[in-house]
Structures are given as structure tokens and as C-alpha cells.
Amino acid sequence: MRATLISFRLDMARVAVGSAGNLVPFVLPLFFAVVFGMAGRDGGSGFGIGGVTGSTYGVCSILPIAAFACECQEGHRRMNGVIPANRTHQVFGRYLTLLAFALVFLAEMAAALGVVALVQGGGPAAWGSLLRSSALPGVWCYVLLQLVLFPLFYRWSDVRRALLALCGLFLGFAALVALAVTFVPEPALDAFGGALDALLADPGVGVPLGVASLTLAAALSLLASVRLQRRKEF
Amino acid sequence: MKLIISSVSGKPIYEQIKDQIRAAVLSGELAAGEALPSLRKLAKELRVSVLTVTRAYNELADEGIVENIQGKGTFVMSRGNELMRRRARQRIRRIFDETCTAAKAADIPLLDLMTMLEESYKDRP
Amino acid sequence: MTTTLPTALSVTGATKRYDSGFTLEDVTFDLPAGYIMGLIGPNGAGKSTLIKLILNMIRRDAGRISVLGMDAVADEETVKERIGVVFDTSCFVETWTVGKVERVMRPMYRAWDGRAFDGYLARFGLERGRKVKELSRGMQMKLMLAVALSHDARLLILDEPTSGLDVLARDELMDILAAYIEDGEHSVIFSTHITADLERAADFITYITHGTLYFTGPKDEFEESFRVVKGGPDLPDRLPDGAVVGVHRYATGFDALVRTENLPHLPADEVVVEPASIDDIIRLTNTGRTAAGEV
Prior knowledge:
The complex is a heterotrimer.
Chain A (H helix, E strand, L loop, with lengths): L1 H14 L12 H12 L5 H27 L15 H33 L4 H32 L3 H25 L2 H16 L1 H29 L3
Chain B lengths: L12 H14 L12 H8 L3 H13 L3 E4 L3 E4 L3 H26 L4 H14 L2
Antiparallel strand pairs in B: 1-2
Chain C lengths: L8 E9 L5 E9 L4 E5 L6 H8 L7 E6 L2 E2 L4 H6 L1 E4 L11 H8 L8 H11 L12 H12 L6 E5 L7 H14 L6 E6 L3 H6 L2 E6 L2 E7 H6 L1 E6 L12 E7 L2 E7 L11 E5 L2 H10 L8
Parallel strand pairs in C: 3-8, 3-9, 6-7, 7-8
Antiparallel strand pairs in C: 1-2, 1-4, 4-5, 9-10, 11-13, 11-14, 12-13
Helix pairs in contact in C: 4-5
């Protein structure tokens, strides 16, 4: 436990390099919220929410990448061989940072959506519905994507190659979707989509399903990362 | 006590330490029962290896000049000084025996022998 | 008097094979607690590989390593709490300040001693506001040394710590190490290619060349087991077979490294026989391989 916490704190210190200047990007989604909120005042709010989600996503994606990139620095790489934490605990610590980043993501989304609700003149109720419809799925997507990314980062210490691999994965996924659209009869697809929407719309089902799917993804991802990291040589 | 280590003399460092401690005991600078500096401390001060000082101390102990007391340190033997003198006398006596044998074989009278000894003694500083 | 303490470092049959072809083969040695060991050898001999094996930074293909009586892999975390590691340059993030290094490292060790760390910062002239990347190589090494000495480490592992240092700083480091081992419970292993650092202060020498162990044992024994024989150009061929470990020939003569026990009786007016320095041994065991050394 102690060793995991040590690794977690070290990773946070790697990410939080430097000064208050690093906080500037976090203002960006709020700024977008004002702009899109005003633009969407006439009813096109879906457009605004997309912008807010996208910018929050962009800002928060840098956080884990920073930890991985920092670890690859020529001199600093050796630090992993010095600290009193073994490789497995170092990976656990890294996954703990993802939990922290997910909270940052949620807080940022909540703040930005609050701004949107404020600008559009909606009350707490509007804010609450925005949180349910956009913030929760946003966090789910963010965490899931990071869970896919982490083992790739551990596999290729080079950040760019890991991201390239992710693009490859996406292309594969897109191809699967295209195949499905081409070969599965349309009514069947419609029925499947409709059922999924209906299922997720109910928070009593959607939230547990989301948590369960993330837990499963986290377990698989962690297992892969630990295996990869244990084999690595510094 | 003064201890100086030369790195160019060609003489091993443990020998240098040994010689200087032996000389200090003989001259009475290190009195009987007096403690030598702890070997780790001396190694630190002289900036030499601990094993080098250990070796010097052990060999001095073998010669009977100092003794190691477990857990306390290394001390000048109570009669280290006297012992060394007695040893020197024994050695000289042995050399004299040989000298006299050789002198008798060559028919050199005692008086001449004493003159030779006197000259030899005076030649040394 | 130190026999009751566990061996500070014990390496048994350590082997590492790289895909590139370089192999560190079957290295075995012990460092008793309370002493300084110099790990020497030319560049590329395998010194860093050995240190990485001790730190479990690379996987070993065979062998066992125990540190302070604990297994270097199975008890890795306990081991790392009790050792201090110093590389030639900093292993901290370049944009961290000295103060941040302290804030990051302090919670890592249960036995962190803030006052000791302050003392070393003052002694080395390290300012808390300076960034790691603004420090010279020597100062980066000293920052690591300050961390290594501030958490009650029983074994210091230093990998080429003096390569970026001037004479004064090297002297200061040797002073610190001599004081560190004075109580007989602390030990140091120290890899270097600057053998002047070891000539006096090291108790033991472990000499690695071409990935294999050439010698391990007390430094005096290392130096005393060899002599350098110098003489005219025609002489080396007259030295007995197998006596010469390595030889360096030049136009007007030769230097040969000979094992003391094999030292032949040679006419004193033809050759000079000198004690061998650590540098002589490294130099001649690496140049003479193709000449007379093959047995």
C-alpha cells in the first residue's frame, strides 16, 4: 500500500511540473462554455455541449501522457530503479493517478456545464440534467480511453508510437462498425440502438452498467500493464 | 603521535604505518598501555583503506608491540618497549657469536675486533 | 569485529545476456559490511550492467543477489529503503527545483532525516530555488548524494560518481565516504574508471573486463599479485610461457604485467621490476590479450 502511494505521489509530482502557468489550459473549457453557451442560447445547446466536452477532454488527456513522457526522460528513467517501490506497485500508483484525473475531469465538466447553464439562464435543474446527460458519459469515455491507452504506453515507451497504436486500434474499431452497418440488416441495428438508448436512459441501469464495464476494463488493462512493466528494462 | 604517509616512497602504506608506530613506541613517545587511534578513525584521517590499517595493527600485534583487546581497541603492550630492547639484544648477541667465530678462524685478536666495531659504530649516524 | 553483521552485498553467479550480444557472465563477489569496494574496469566492461542488476533495473538470466542480507528482487522495496543510489548525473525531473526534490523524496523513506539533508545542501552549496537542469553535473551528483545520505541508508551504490567532478569535489566525496563507513556498519560500492579515487581509500577491488570477473578481493592483494616488468625490445620472448598476463611493446622496449608468483629471476641490469598500480593492471590486462597472455 505504502509503495503504491509512493508511486502515486511521484507520478503526481511528475505531472505537476512547474508553476501556476500549467493551470491556464484548465480555464479553456470554461471559456468555451461561455462562448458556446451564448451561441446556443436559441436552442442549439447540443452544439455547445460538444465543444465543452471536447475541450475538457483535450485538457485532461495531457495529464497521464505527461507522467509517461516524464518517465522516459533520459536521466529520470533511472528513478524507477531507485525508489522503494517495485514495478507492480509503480503500475498501481499510475492507475491511481487515473482515478485522480477522472475526478479532475468531472470537476472541470461540472464547472463548465454550470457556466453553460448560467449563460443560458437555466437553473440548478438544467445544470443537473446536463451533468447526467453529458458529464457522466464523458467521464466514462475518458476513463475507458485511458484504460486502453495505458498498456499501449507501457508497451511503447515512446509516447508518439503509443498514440499511433491507438489510432490503429480506432481504425480497426471503425472498420468493425462499418462492417456491422454494411452486413447487419437495418431494422436489427435500429432495434439494437433503440434498446441500448432506452436501457442507458434509466440511471438505475446506466450507472451500474457504466461502473461495471469500467471495472472490467480496468482489471484487464491493469493486468496487461503489470505484465508489460515487469518485463521492461530501464 | 605524528604519522605521515608517502605515496611515492614505493614502500607499502601498511609498512609505513607500522614503522612509524614502532618507532614511536621505541622512542617512548607512545607509552606502555596507551591506546592507538581506533583503526577506522586512523583510516579516515589518513584517507587510507581500513584494511591497510588493520593489516599494520595486526602485524604490530604479531610482533608483540601492541595488543588488540576485543571491543576496546589497540594498546601498546605494557612491556612492548622492554620487549623490543630484549629482542634487539638477542639479535646482536647472535651476530656477535658469528663475528667472533669468524674472527677466531682468521686469527684476528680481540683488540683489533673491538677497533673494527668501534669504527663501524661511529660510521653510523 | 564486523563478522556479526550481515554481508552488505553478495553477488553469486550473476549473469545477464543482452540481445546485442554483450554478456555479463557468472559474476560472484561479496562485500563485507563496513568497507568500501571499488568496481573497476574499462568502459563497456559491464560495470553499469552489474549495478543495474543489483538495482533490479534489468532482469537477470541467472544468479542471486542479496543486499544487506535480503534478496534484491523478492525484498526489493525493503532493500531500496536501506540503500542510497548515486549516478553520475541527476535522476530527478529536470524542471524540478532542489526544494521540490526534497518534497518528493521525503515521503519515500520512513527514516528521512530533514536536518541531515539541510546540512548537506548547505555543505554542497545547493540552493533550494535552483532547478535541476541549471545545476552542473557535479552539483547534480551532490544532490543525489544528499538524498542518498539523508535516509539512513546502510549501503551506498555509486555508479561513476566522480566522472564529472574536479579534483576538489572528488576529494570531498572521498572524505564523505571515509566518514560514512567509519562506524563499521555502513558500506560503499563504487564503480569508477578514475582509479586514483580508489588507490588509497578502497578496501576491496572487484575488477570486471569483457563481461567477466577478473579479480575480487582486498585491494592490497590485488596490487601485490602483479608486478610490472620493463625491459629492452627483445626480452619479452624470453619470459617464461604463461608468466606474462599482458604486454605492451613499443619501439625501444616493453612493459609486461606478470603475476608475482610467476615472476622469473631476471638479470637486474636488463630489466626493471616495479609494483603494479591499478591503472597498470587494467591497461595491461586489456592490451596484451593477443600477445603473450593466451594460455
